[in-house]
């Protein structure tokens, strides 16, 4: 493996995304990307005995789907890499415990997806693993109770709020065997511009996305125009507008290629989605379900996904601490013919 | 922290301020007035029914009226309606009896999976607790002031 600059890995063997599995919750299944998801949950409310069990079910089902599509058994997977938003990563560890995987749990909030794919790509590229499965899950009700209020509590949320996505997305990454490959990853630094309001994730995370995208371009000597699409994790509509201003301040205009997973997953007119989606599953559902499919089917050749994470906890926000954020970027490209 | 970083943070916060949608104060106030007032009107109607048909005195009708309002709020919470109603109504849905019942019912529902004692027992007052704590504390100080004032004069 080669490196570029201070923080970019270049995967010379070009690990391939063999297959993806996506499971979308009800509201996500009613959104604009509905047709792109493998499994759509249509039932409202709790399916199992707790929201936590439901969330574990999401990642289990996404994993089963991804394995099935890759025509692999769990034994063929060397490592499972991923995480979720629950304390102690119970979604990831409990959800996958029956597969017998060797598991590497990660936490970087909503940027966990790109961190997982970056490390998965690294393992495959360096030969430390032949095949890995990477991804995340999140559930609006487990996130609400951990980070905010009980689900049924009647408090009014501001327009800057974002809705935690219910769903899970997993990707099987191996040596070869697909026309979608992972070619580079840029690991982000923690950025803190002093935003304290936990209803303003978009504003807290926009500078992290900006730094990581700039770092990638700087490290690799490329330009915004070298990508067909640059998707940030979950800045939402408001964070996205802030990010565009940050680019404009540097005299850069990303144009239509700059988009955001939190913006794509819901239509603005859906109920209580506010500024858009967030949560560890937001970028994995959108990337694995939709963005990679656009590479596979020939619409795009080369994209960057820069998922963003707000690294707060309820304790730190009650202690009036500001919200440090992070963003990791991964580059996906098409190799070979359109499928 | 050097001044350059400080300036950068300050100018960023000004950028964020420009993008933050203004709170719809007028809309929120009107809705809160209508909904909060509406809930009180329903309460008044319930009380009047107790007085007229239940044979209660106006004072005695207070307790069963509160019980009915709590029941209505808890039913709405249980059916998953109160939170949506709260998003629409804002402060209007926070009127004491129904709002308080919602905080307790929602906390109880949320914690049901952790069992009756540690779950519901331990979390029932999670949101309502501060209201009770500061209600009691302020009542104590108000009573203390009243006691001192009445005994000095």
Automatic annotation (TrEMBL), chain A:
Transmembrane segments: none annotated. GO terms for molecular function: acyltransferase activity. This is Stage V sporulation protein AD. It comes from Alicyclobacillus ferrooxydans.
UniProtKB/TrEMBL annotation, chain B:
Keywords: Membrane, Transmembrane, Transmembrane helix. It holds the Pfam family SpoVAC_SpoVAEB. It comes from the Bacteria. The keyword Membrane applies. This is Stage V sporulation protein AC. The chain crosses the membrane at residues 30-50, 62-81, 88-107, 127-149. InterPro entries: Spore_V_AC, SpoVA. NCBIfam families: spore_V_AC (TIGR02838).
